[in-house]
Amino acid sequence: MRGLLLSVAVVAASQQAGPWLPSFERVQPETFAAPGGQANAWADADSDGDLDYFVSFRGRPNRFYRNDNGTFRDVAADVGLADNQETRAVAWGDFDADGDPDLFVGFADPTVPAKVYRNDQNGTTFTNVAAAIGVDLRGVARQPAWVDYDGDGDLDLFAAFRDVANKLLRNDRGRFVDVTAASGIGDTRKTVSAVWWDFDRDGDLDLFVANQEGEANGLYRQDRGKFEDVAAAMGVTGTPRPAADGGVGPSVADFDLDGDFDLFVANYGPSALYRNEAGKSFVDVAPAAGINLPGHGVTSAWGDLDNDGLPDLYVGNFLGGQPLYRDALFMNRGAGRFDETLPDAILKHDATHGVQFVDVDGDGRLDLSLTNNDPAGGGHPLFRNTAATRGRGFFVEVTDEAGRRTLAGSEVRVFQPRTRQLLAAALVDTGSGYCSQNLMPSHLGVPETWQGRVDVEVTTIAGGRRRVTSVKGVDPAAHVRRPLRVITP
User: What pLDDT shows up at residue 308?
Assistant: First the structure.
């Protein structure tokens, strides 16, 4: 209720000054002009304090852009990441817990095994170690995710596939063991994408999978390493639907600031915004919220563009033969309502697949990176956010006691000091955009209705326990270029 009251207050303040509208300009247009982009993901691969950018392609080698003080240069060939196979799935994660991000790459050709690139020497060299560590995954690759599903402190590997059963590999001291059958997670339907979070707040990471060709989605509730599909009971199957329709691009955010994380699913057919009812069920509120997308949604991502504490939603849409099939950008106005406000700058440089919100210039405002795999054009544009935001944006990085970023799925919340007045919330990325996973700090916006310091609360999920770590009296302005590091037990 308090979150809802805050949302209403933010809306009232916004209405007095008129609705906030997004504005973008392109960054290095020639650099990001090549078409064919599919999955895209960000991480500080060279440990220099800014985020680097990997883009997978069809029709050309993959690219890895090193970010040097805001200037991007493709170094994929130099560091060993320029695979020329059509690549559909990428995920950054520190699987060996040595402090730098490694990269999973999955391919469209089911005869080509997936690769796990170990990051050596701060991003100067990447070595495929998949066979050496026991990762033998083949299929039409879709969503991968590095998550510590069993809470033992290291990252395990989930991989979804379009043509074979999804897989779960447990990390046992650097060697991966297939636990798909034992865990019950091997969905055999045509999975396109997936996302992990503790939807029922029981201390275990759960998994949603979006399935295509008329088949039902899956929602796998975890109980200490065992998974049960509860999608029907929770109301997120998306069925019945025609064989031409299906789930494609899920993403998670607390859009209504009520304390739990909700689920959006971009669909072939009507897209859905499932409001989480305290982990007991989900209710599709998309039409009531003003999100009317009856067409071909492919991917989705949440990000607080105006720093008002309320996450906004970008949906990448695609239909074969229509290269400018319109995307949608929904600004969250609070009280459960969204306005569609895609800027003109994006109309002819939109997404077919990859969508990521990221702060590339360190100014506390979220920018936008898109990929378009239309061979006739589209490119993979990077847009800088040029609108003056009303609130304040800052960043939180969640690490374990050794400083390792192995806690995907952790929840980050911002409160007004000495109260439970929720100002913003975010999730450490477990799968986003199109079949991608980032390894980057969580962005949070503090609304203009609160000008003081804030309290930050991080909830880590492991082994049936939800552990809370709090940092009091945080100045958001001090953690724009240098994220607040929250060390969790």
Answer: 97
